[in-house]
Amino acid sequence: MSSEKLTKVRIVGSGLIGTSIGLGLVQGGIAVEMIDSDPRSQSLANDLIGGVGVAAPELVVLAMPTSQLAVVIKREIDLNPHCTFIDVGSVKGEVELQVKAFPALSRRFLPTHPMAGREIGGAGSARADLFQGRSWILTPSEDIEPNSKALVLELISLLGATPIELSAVDHDRAVAKISHLPQVAASLVAKQLIDTPTEWMELAGQGLRDTTRIAGSDELLWKEIIFSNRTELQQLLINLQRDLGVMIDALEDPEKIASLIAAGRAGRALIPGKHGGKAREYSFLPIVIDDKPGQLGAIFNECAAMDVNVEDLNIEHSPGQLSALITLALSHSDAEKLSSHLISIGWNVHPIRK
Amino acid sequence: MSSEKLTKVRIVGSGLIGTSIGLGLVQGGIAVEMIDSDPRSQSLANDLIGGVGVAAPELVVLAMPTSQLAVVIKREIDLNPHCTFIDVGSVKGEVELQVKAFPALSRRFLPTHPMAGREIGGAGSARADLFQGRSWILTPSEDIEPNSKALVLELISLLGATPIELSAVDHDRAVAKISHLPQVAASLVAKQLIDTPTEWMELAGQGLRDTTRIAGSDELLWKEIIFSNRTELQQLLINLQRDLGVMIDALEDPEKIASLIAAGRAGRALIPGKHGGKAREYSFLPIVIDDKPGQLGAIFNECAAMDVNVEDLNIEHSPGQLSALITLALSHSDAEKLSSHLISIGWNVHPIRK
Predict the structure, then answer these.
(1) What's the mean pLDDT in A23-34?
(2) Would you say residue B2 lies in a domain?
(3) Where residue B260 sits, what CATH number does that domain have?
(4) Are residues B134 and B34 in the same domain?
(5) A146 at interface of B, judged by CB pairs closer than 8 A
(6) What is the pLDDT of residue A262?
(7) What three-state secondary structure class fits A278?
């Protein structure tokens, strides 16, 4: 069976992740059937992705809450006893424990975790491109079947993600720090906003918005993630609580305040650039345009004419005014070239920022 | 003097805020002179904005750290004894206290706080449009000279900002909650990242990036802001510390975890939309394009042809792939219209998200 290829996949769970996997696989030419405990959700998900009835799939994706894993495995293993299985849960130690109860599956179950998600869930929010360019973590046992692993790698590749192998313990420690800790912090900062006068809230700037964005996430999803990873998360929360205490005690001492803020800046600098790996360095070109149809198109036509590639773009409106500020992220040389060109033909271009 | 107009402004302090005010005023036709305790910074700032020597200004902007306010006022009041003064510091109770030492100034000093900034400081980061569409808070005393207030409102209007009057106490309480608390939280979460293995950091997603973005801020600026507002900030930090303790105690109880995360979502929902005032609701239209020059221009030409106004835009690249995902924020009706049109002419349009 070592040359088995992925042709048929069964996905159990039609939430954001399961349905997004389904969408991506169907676009990649794979036959997919979506299964859900709720018949209406199952029907909707199959309609959304173009799902079909699938007999004898090579791979079963378990995309439901980890708490239901044992029950679902028991049923699925009877239906497809020789199949490869993966889950996509956010905490892997818990999954390893649950799978231990099924020795027949030990060499054909590969715990995985795609590092992608959104603040909103459900099949309706699914995107075929959800995993494009993201990391997809595998925590395989040492004796995993080579063929099972190959099938999983093929699935990850079809979805445009990059496979990364970690031990389950390292995975759970890593996500506790880079995902679960910031989630708890964002939620608790946002909680402090309750009962704030409306006129104060209207002063909120981008800092508050960014710091609390993920506080909009679903509590049913997060209660399970936090609970499953509580062992790894607990010490991190205690450390944060201790540092808050240090800050409270430092309030009368500006130098101590500065050293805590500086430590934060040092930690922040360790986060790699947006595409993973090393940070890419862009130049930023601010342009003030009329806030009406046609202006952005005209700018991008000039970009195309100058063979300039726009890496990213931000738009800020000025309410009550008929202008908007757009900021293009470009390579240094493209920024210089485009800036000179746009100025020469009369656009309101501001100095390049690096 | 009640009909005095703003024609000449002296700005003391050539950092990000002072220089940005200078740039904006010069663009608005005002003669501006930048002053700095460092002669080289002063010279650079005047070169950047097109500053000129200004005699008998109507208004002096004090844009240096609040801790130096008394010393600078003493000097400036001798130079321009009949002038109107404002400061732009982030904490206003402290400013009121310092200005009380100058009774001659009491009716001509108006404490203000423009709600704008960037993670990076200095004259080189200044932007004439920094205040466009932002709130600019005034905390005037009851007996402020009407003419002084009119000059300040003219300055705010010239810079494209919206004036908002608050008491100094309300201002300091509001910014403690919506600005200084998130800053401390972001810095302390980012501090926890120190000594994290590089391969774990490479798994960082947008959640961690957003939650810690403002942790990149300057510690010299923030030590002064936090220290000046420590009275208002202290209780908020204690509340956050207490809620962290509640979360730590709740780790064995999924329902308690869920209620804390849900409270965060409720608090987050109180933040108004990006333009201030009530949140504007957009539809989001995802489109997969080839990642090469010309594609964005073509999309925006279609927008213009359909009379569709793009409110915001996000670009996500897929590294190692020749495609990019752009997501347009549009009104509901524009999204429907554009989606049908783009699909009909062959673009890879994904379902609208609300």
Answers:
(1) 95
(2) no
(3) 1.10.3660.10
(4) yes
(5) no
(6) 97
(7) coil
Supply the Cα-derived Rg of chain B in whole angstroms.
24
Q: How many CB pairs under 8 A join A and B?
A: 434
Contact at CB, A272 and B296, closer than 8 angstroms:
no
Contacting A residues, span 325-354, partner chain B, CB-CB under 8 Å:
325, 350, 353
Indicate the residue of A215, A259, A319 with minimum beta-carbon distance to B276: A319
Asked whether residue A274 carries a pLDDT value surpassing 60, the answer given is no
Structure tokens at A21: 């996997």
Interface subset of B 192-211, CB within 8 angstroms of A: 192-194, 196-205, 207-211
Domain match, B251 and B145 both: no
How many separate domains does chain B show? 3
CA A120 → CA A49, A101, A107, A180, A218, distances in Å? 18, 33, 34, 17, 7
**B 257-286 residues with CB below 8 A of A?**
257-272, 274-277, 286
Average pLDDT over residues A347-351: 85
- In chain B, which stretches have pLDDT less than 70? 1-3, 118-121, 273-281, 291-293, 315-324
Q: Which of B217, B240, B268 is the last residue of a domain?
A: B268
Q: Is B322 exposed, middle or buried (0-12, 13-18, 19+ CB in 10 A)?
A: exposed
**Which 8-state DSSP code applies to residue B350?**
P
B152 and B232 inside one domain:
no
B156 lies in the same domain as B175: no
Contact call for residues A210 and B217 (beta carbons, < 8 A): no
**pLDDT tens per residue across span B185-202:** 999 999 999 999 999 998
pLDDT band of residue A37 (cuts 50, 70, 90) is very high
Residue of B nearest to A232 (CA): B251
Does B251 lie at the interface with A, CB-CB under 8 angstroms? yes
